[in-house]
């Protein structure tokens, strides 16, 4: 990572939007700079945690960076989410000259911390293309001789993010080959003769990247896509030490299956107490700890809401919660009672501390 003085520090200065444009009808790219033109220091594949105020309430989200480490511009590409709050707000409201506050860059899915061989497969679907695009741009701009197969899955031809740039990279670099797998053909007459249609499976992967089993795989995309690729890799006895994936998309809160409050009987209600805030809430057993704290206005930061950034870390001092695996916590922290509020459900009466 960079160490010079003109490096951007997220906690000191906000991002300033220089330019934005539509990539597809529901996806927009935003190009930010720092006001003193500092360089952006991160590892290719990481995400930035942003905070925005919407209707008087601070909201936090994590977005993968698609630009190159060390550059003076930082690119985020954001897709609309049905019923989503922050992504839709950013696309509808952010204008050149506006500032965006951030609370740090993080993520272990990156080129510095993941091991890889001489041949790699960057495999993505939908907006999962953003971190692997940063990886491809980083390798190619450094004239790396790493051999890159870039396979991207999209709904149709019109929904391929960075389409022209990817095709231009394919033409320019001998060590970069791109392939697209589309769910639907828009128009049979316009379809390229070689274009494969359908969803990812072993047969299609074998056709689109014949030597995928000899490559290091970097994978990012929606949950169903990630699960399909994981299943193919496991059935093929793929060496999973060469398999890296961005887990904040796969590790969704829906896995927690929190019951709705309407379905709660009296004996299912449990209490969450936060002595330092003089706070006590009665919540449905199985609610996420984050919901239990946010409903009382407790100022807990939750940037990714999916168990990866670590910003919602808090300590359970009495009682017990059920938690999904959390790589961002050390074993010592877990033993001391630290949990991620976004990835933990309240199963009985508990007492919690934020520090
Ligand atoms: S909000 Fe990121 S880990 Fe919980």
CATH class of the largest domain: Alpha Beta
CATH homologous superfamily grouping of the largest domain: Nucleotide-binding domain of ferredoxin-NADP reductase (FNR) module
The percentage of residues in β strands lies in 25-35%
Low-confidence stretches: 249-267
* Rg measurement, Å: 22 Å
Fraction in helix:
10-25%
**What's the overall geometry?**
globular
Would you give an account of this structure?
It is built from 8 helices and 19 strands. The chain has 3 domains: 92 residues, Translation factors (Elongation Factor Tu (Ef-tu), domain 3, Beta Barrel), CATH 2.40.30.10; 132 residues, Nucleotide-binding domain of ferredoxin-NADP reductase (FNR) module (Rossmann fold); 98 residues, Roll (Ubiquitin-like (UB roll)), CATH 3.10.20.30. Helix 3 links the parallel strand 8 and strand 9. It is α/β, with parallel strands linked by helices and 355 residues long. The protein is globular. The strands form 4 sheets. It has a 6-stranded antiparallel sheet with strand order 4-3-6-1-2-5, with helices on one face. A 6-stranded parallel sheet has the order 10-9-8-7-11-12, with helices on both faces. The protein has a 5-stranded mixed sheet with strand order 14-13-19-15-17. It binds FE2/S2 (inorganic) cluster.
Summarize the structure.
It is built from eight helices and 19 strands. The protein is of the alpha/beta class and 355 residues long.
Keywords:
355 residues; alpha/beta; Elongation Factor Tu (Ef-tu), domain 3; Rossmann fold; Ubiquitin-like (UB roll); 3 domains; six-stranded antiparallel sheet; six-stranded parallel sheet; 19 strands; globular; binds FE2/S2 (inorganic) cluster; FNR_nucleotide-bd; iron; OxRdtase_FAD/NAD-bd; oxidoreductase activity; metal ion binding
